[in-house]
Structure formats: C-alpha cells, structure tokens
Amino acid sequence: IYVGAGQRGVIPGSMGQKSYVVRGNVSDSGALADSYFSASHGAGRVLGRKAAKRQLGADAWDKMDGVTWQSAQADALLDEAPGAYKNIDEVMEAQKDLVQVDHVLRAVLNYKGL
Asked: Considering the domain boundaries, does residue 2 fall inside one?
C-alpha cells in the first residue's frame, strides 16, 4: 500500500489473524522514502493455493477460534486457511520503521465468496 508520512492505510491479516490500521511513520521519513512510500498490503502467502490444498489438513482451521466463518465449506476454503499465510505480527514487526499502528482489529466474522 502507499503510505506517505502520516497517511493512513489498512494492512489485513489472514482469515484468523488481526488486521491493522496504520499510518506512514512521520518520525522516519527516510525509511519511507527508501521503500518508495510503500508497505505490505497484507500478510502474504507462504503457500500458493494449490500447495495449500495439498499440504494443509483439518488442523489448518485451529486458529479460527472465536471467529464466525463458513466452517461447512472448510474443504473448499482450504487455500485461504490461516496456515497458507505469513504470521501478520512478524510482517508488522518487519516494517515497524515504515508504519505506526493506530488500531489493531480482531477478526470476529469472515466470509469468502465461493
């Protein structure tokens, strides 16, 4: 996402992870300029869609406690399971010099079109 100094943005996690409302870090505008005023647009995948469907099992949904989602379609949604994505906390730590976190959003509902 584009994040100029002080500009707000949203960085989403995966289905079961947090999302973040951020703003470009005004205290380190040099780091922002070095990144061409960009930050990650989300958690990012560790597994492609086909690999996730092959490698992940029923335990891939363990991180969804407390989140309302389409559990009846778990098999069809396996490529979107939390295990197919990077840990959003690690992603945010890696870009702490680029953005400051204004709000942390906890997942309570997730709906994926099939």
From this structure: no
Q: Which pLDDT does position 103 carry in this prediction? A: 98
Task: Please report the pLDDT score of residue 91 as a whole number.
Answer: 96
Q: How many distinct structural domains can be found in the chain?
A: 1
Euclidean distance between the first and the last CA atom of the chain, given in angstroms as a whole number: 26
Q: How far apart are CA 85 and CA 13, in angstroms?
A: 8
Hey, what amino acid is at 53?
K
Write the CA distances from 84 to 36, 60, 75, integer angstroms.
28, 8, 14
What is the C-alpha R_g of the chain?
16
Which of 111, 63, 54 lies closest to 83 in space, CA to CA? Answer: 63
3, part of any domain? no
Residue 114 or residue 91, greater confidence: 91
Parent domain of 35 = 8-105
Give the residue numbers annotated as catalytic, written as ranges: 41
Query: Could you tell me if residue 85 is inside a domain?
Result: yes
Question: What is residue 87's predicted lDDT score, i.e. its pLDDT?
Answer: 94
